[in-house]
Amino acid sequence: MKNKEEFATTSIHGGYASKDHHGSLSTPVYQTSTFTFETAEQGEARFQGEEAGFIYSRLGNPTVQALESRMAQLEEGESGLAFGSGMAAVSAVLLYMTKMNDHIVSSKGVYGCTYGLMEFMKEKYNIVTEFVDLTDERSLEASIRANTSCIYIESPINPTMQLIDLEMVGHVAKRHGLPLIVDNTFSSPYFQQPLKHGATVVLHSATKYISGHGDVIGGIAVGDRELMGEIGRSTHKDLGGILSPHDASLLLRGLKTLPIRMERHADNARHIFNKLRNHSEVTSVFFPDDPTREDYEVYKRQMTGPSGVISFQLARTKEEVQSFMNELKLIKIAVSLGDAETLIQHPATMTHAVIPKVEREKMGITDQLVRLSIGLEHWEDVWDDLEQALKKVSEPIRK
């Protein structure tokens, strides 16, 4: 993994040379739909791939390319692709990796919209996703079939924060000749670089920590140059889920402060975790940097920090849990994460509501579970808000 000093420099300078853009300190926004050719022959050469250069912004754009290059460097991959959303990235990669009647092995917990996409692929193309306990190597081995096309995981898993041993899964994937796709949204490349641990493709909802400001929707895929080129020429280009130059510039801006923000998110989260686990209303807390967890050794081996997401459970009914959320003042009820503001959401009725209740509960997503994305505020202000809301929910419900 890059040391943190080198990472910080790359997050500011990677993928951009000001001398190539009239000395502009910031990456210019090439707000254009198309690019002119000097001659008809040049246009033909570019379409034939005989000459490098830009053609049309859905096929490539200098601002977007700078973001793709910087993200590839930060993930220590060869090449990157930027998308109009995290789900556009997931869709393009999974559809590229599969064909009709294929089989996908997935971690037991995934984001609700990823689950929805997998269900759509099953209904439409008979591409069946099998959700497996990927913390167990024997379960993983037993799930692989002749028609398995790829392994897909989140680590940490949203929202239970369970960790998957990437090296173990990577070894199994390599043994069977299968690509391993890892959604790294919850960690960012600052705290985890899955390609170093056996992943084939790394995905991000760039909306989250990469942006950090809650004002962009975007997605990223990083892998080797050949694979990213193939995806770029097919499902990225032809499905059209591309990122705009303006949004690319906002994500480039966000990356410049990523190391500073991630350290603050993690430090704040550690404080809140220690408070929550000692509160009488809280029955369990899920946070990677917890020495009592079974997967703590995995955390120490493949992550350099926990990021800022904490999930916890209250011994209350769904209605009481919602009342607790409604009592919060500083903390906002919203379904994103990685922003400057601390956010809270109820996965069972929000991000993971599309998953049938029986399946949700197998994933550990109960009506008692809430997910916190710790922001950049002073942690004591965040805790004061949580504490006052927890106190109110512990009082008898007034009719």
Automatic annotation (TrEMBL):
Instruction: Tell me which InterPro entries the record gives.
Output: Cys/Met-Metab_PyrdxlP-dep_enz (IPR000277), PyrdxlP-dep_Trfase (IPR015424), PyrdxlP-dep_Trfase_major (IPR015421), PyrdxlP-dep_Trfase_small (IPR015422)
Keyword terms of this UniProt record: Lyase, Pyridoxal phosphate
Which protein, by its recorded name, is this? Answer: homocysteine desulfhydrase
Provide one Gene Ontology biological process annotation: transsulfuration
Q: Which residues carry this modification: N6-(pyridoxal phosphate)lysine?
A: K208
The reply to whether Membrane figures as a keyword in the UniProt entry is no
Cofactor(s) the protein requires to work? pyridoxal 5'-phosphate
Instruction: State which Enzyme Commission number(s) the record gives.
Output: 4.4.1.2
Q: What class of enzyme is it?
A: lyase
The cross-references to Pfam families, in alphabetical order and at most eight, read: Cys_Met_Meta_PP (PF01053)
A GO MF term = pyridoxal phosphate binding
Question: Catalytic activity, per the record?
Answer: L-methionine + H2O = methanethiol + 2-oxobutanoate + NH4(+); L-homocysteine + H2O = 2-oxobutanoate + hydrogen sulfide + NH4(+) + H(+)
Q: Name one GO cellular component term.
A: cytoplasm
User: What is the species of this protein?
Assistant: Pontibacillus halophilus JSM 076056 = DSM 19796
Query: Which SUPFAM superfamilies does the entry mention?
Result: PLP-dependent transferases
Q: Which family does it belong to?
A: Belongs to the trans-sulfuration enzymes family.
